[in-house]
Amino acid sequence: MAEEIDIIDQVTQSDYKYGFVTNVESDNAKVGLTEDTVRFISAKKNEPEWMLEWRLKAYKAWLQMEEPTWPNVHYPKIDYQKIIYYAAPKPKKVLNSLDEVDPEILETFKKLGIPMEEQKILAGVAVDVVMDSVSVKTTYKEKLKELGIIFCSMSDAIKDYPELVKKYMGSVVPVRDNYFAALNSAVFSDGSFCFIPKGTRCPMELSTYFRINEANTGQFERTLIIAEDNSYVSYLEGCTAPMRDENQLHAAVVELVAMDNAEIKYSTVQNWYPGNKEGKGGIYNFVTKRGICQGINSKISWTQVETGSAITWKYPSVILKGENSIGEFYSVAVTNNFQQADTGTKMIHIGKNTRSRVVSKGISAGKSQNSYRGLVKVNPNAENAYNFSQCDSLLIGDRCGAHTFPYLEVSNKSAKVEHEATTSKIGEDILFYCNQRGLSTETAVQLIINGYCKEVFQHLPMEFAAEAQKLLAVSLEGSVG
Amino acid sequence: MMTLSETENAIHPSAQALYAQWEKLATTQTPMGIARKPAIHSFGQLGIPTTRHEDWKYTNIAAQFKKGLVDVTNSASTEVDENQINLFPFLTANRLVFVNGHFSPTLSDVIDEAEGLVIGSLAHYNEQGHMGLRDNYNTLANNSTEAFSALNTAFAQDGAFVYVPAKVEVAHPVIIIHVTTESSEGLINTRNLVVTGRSSRLDIIESHQYIGTDTAFGNQLFEIFVGDNGHVNYHKLMTDANIGRHVGNLAAKQGNDSHFNTYVVNLSGQLVRNFMSVDIDGKNSEAGFYGLYSLDGNSQADNHVLVKHNEPHCESHQLFKGLLNDKSTGVFNGRIYVKEDAQKTNAFQSNKTILLSNDANTYTKPQLEIFADDVKCSHGATMGQIDDTMVFYLRARGLDEAQARAMLNQAFAADVIEKVTIEPLKEWLLNQLTLQLTR
Asked: How many CA atoms lie within 13 A of B62 on its CB side?
């Protein structure tokens, strides 16, 4: 038992390993949010008139909306007039090779253990690096272009592919969808745009690393992925952020559109700064992620490993509109110290023979609160819809909380919906069994947690699976790894 | 004339009318009288919940009061034709009958006697100043959060009062029959209080019957105290074909080593809402909640359960099953709350629903809120239909399809009724279920 207490102490006391600040001069907007701020951002990015109108419409909608209070998280009220809504590294001339990228930025990625040089050579991963909102460097763009795949920053897409952006932006997450989505729509700085044409299988994992850098700047990313008929894409998103004392706001929007027989696989490893051991600082992560299975036989799969952020509010969802479409959600959410997470998914069954699967694994340690909140909705016309949900929670320490709030709404008699949830700690009998066979308690805990999360990890792309395990080890240092 | 603050009035426009009505009630210095004033203020602040209220998301209760909100408990008739009431003749039991919220001495019959045992009218013992009532009345009701609890406390005139002293085992069940004959759309408020002492035992059967009306709106509040090492079984039956609108709040509290089981059977009801909460405030105690809602027509049943594990080494079980036909709606919201340091808690919850029609809807929200780590808590929820292979199996043995399905539905629903421990009651309920499934 003494050893176990040690582990809990270590878990509770481990520090954030990725805390550092990169000194890149930035070109900030004035503090606060007014119509002028929106105009400033739009002007700064040389956006066309229609985009500015869209932003202003969102801003006006946002003014009329109220911040949601229903999530099971508590934080001091955010003063939206004290946030800098735009921060971009000083514009540089167009870059031709990696050498021209600011060495400090390259250094940042080295510290993260994701050296770009290596990635460029070895991994076959095209990285659209977003450093405080503006795309700094895009690799592999040319190669993808040959296949007709568009993978670029959102600002480029607005300039180069206005028709596609106009058609799809806001089609899955409307401007008025929720408070944070409206805010994002008004002030989004940049993000990734990805378009996979008909019959194309994207040959590499597309990935983006988001970083929050400038102190007091909210990060408002916007990602849009469109997979046309018979196409496939796997997209990776990973986050780490420097150590800060002030809370930082992150309100991203991700929209996915899958047409007939298309498949989108979206994987996230999220490790924003969670605040220190006393619960001070940390990122507020209020994200709206939603995909629509528009065509028949389409598939959208969300996989996420959430270890960071002081507050997480995130429900990657799938609207299953096309017949025979499939939605999946695999999640590991770890909270430690004073972190709070309210996360889950929504599966909306509209089309016939639609299927969805939800596997959520929560781990709470320290004094953290971890909630799963999910909705499974079967509309009256969704014949033979099927859903299976499993939500497990693991508690480490007696001062943390694990909560489950599933909503099941069924209006079709042929639907089959199954939901199960369990909450427990690692059983003493299981630890005893491992100890008896020569494993130390620490190794045993590591083994059990790895086994517990395996079902989710196996859905991550290879490169990410390794990183995810590393993150889990850091987050629960002492008990794993 | 008492006036409302602006905020109170803004929340519910008909609150003003209710105040005027409330003012005419005599507020005596009895436990019931004293509780009325804070309660009406609490209601003024809460107002009738709308669907924006998380607990009322799927039941639009505010729509029921479009024509206004009036209390008719005081003015309602206390007469009823005895032959129309189901007095449960097949059970040897103590019987308390209430007509439109008022005690009916002629229809009631108490057979068990013991020193200090009280089975009777709440109003009567309120006047007498019974100690058990004075100490416990209105101490469990959630008047500050539940609008209907507050409304009940402000207006209720009568209901059942059962006081079981320590070490008394009540030999026969206490049947509480609430008859509603009121034909207006007003509220009938009834209030019940059960206090059981250490090592006592009590079975309560509560039946709601609507005679010649389906317009009245019943608002009931039930408080139950289960003493240390006590056993209390509570059954709430709504089995008649024409149950009207009903909101019931049950607030219970358990001591150490106690057992408390609740059985809820809804076989009809235009709109039936049950909110059942239990505080397990003693160690080594067990609580069980078993519910069946088999609905047809436009019925709606909304069952909310909140089990609060406040002490270690306790166990709770919830099993709710729904069979939904026609345009009926079933709502289940079960919540398990485990307080910090309530270690070694085992809490389980299960909700299974079969939809028999495409116009039926089911909404389920099974929730876990766990603040202690050494616990085993789980919930499961399924929604589906009878497996065709099972129907085929029965048809291969000579049953027609309708018979086969009826048999499978009956078996599905009977799971809950089988939990009832009073044999004759179990038999009767199984028969009622068969009648309902074939009507």
From this structure: 17
CB B407 within 8 A of CB B394: yes
pLDDT at A299 over 60: yes
Contact A84, A217 (CB under 8 A): yes
For the record, the structure tokens of A423 come out as 């909450």
Chain A residues with CB under 8 Å of B379 CB are 404, 419-421
Distances (CA, A) of A366 to A448, B170, B172: 18, 49, 51
| Short-list A290, A277, A284, A368, CA closest to A327 | A290
Is the Cβ–Cβ distance between A420 and B378 less than 8 Å?
yes
Q: State the nearest Cα–Cα gap between B61 and chain A, in angstroms.
A: 19
Domain locations in chain A as residue ranges = 19-427, 428-481
| B378 contact A CB<8A | yes
Determine contact, residues A318/A354, Cβ cutoff 8 Å.
no
What's phi and psi for B423, nearest 5 deg? -55, -55
User: Across residues A215-227, what is the average pLDDT?
Assistant: 77
Please state the length of chain B.
439
- What contacts B13, CB < 8 A, 6 or more positions away? none
From the list A455, A244, A216, the residue with the least C-alpha distance to A358 is A455
Residues of A in contact with B374 (CB under 8 A): 398, 425
- Give dist(CA A360, CA A306) in Å, integer: 11
CB contact under 8 A, A410 and B358: no
CA dihedral A82, A242, A454, A461 (to 10 degrees): 100
Pairing of the two strands B118-121 and B160-164: antiparallel
Strands of B168-255, DSSP E: 174-180, 187-196, 201-210, 217-226, 231-238, 245-254
Residue A65's CB: how many other CB atoms inside 10 A?
15
Please give the model's pTM, rounded to 2 decimal places: 0.87
CB A273 within 8 Å of CB A302: no
Taking the domains of chain B in order of start, what are their residue ranges? 6-282, 387-439
Determine, for residues B357 and A402 on separate chains, whether the beta-carbon distance falls below 8 Å. no
* Nearest by Cα to A334 from A402, A265, A430, A423: A402
Q: Which residues pair with A130 in a beta bridge?
A: A135, A210
Do B360 and A413 make contact, defined as CB atoms within 8 angstroms? yes
Beta strands, E only, A336-428: 340-343, 346-349, 355-365, 369-378, 386-396, 401-410, 416-425
The string of pLDDT tens digits covering residues B268-324 is 888 999 999 999 999 999 999 999 999 999 999 999 999 999 999 999 999 999 999
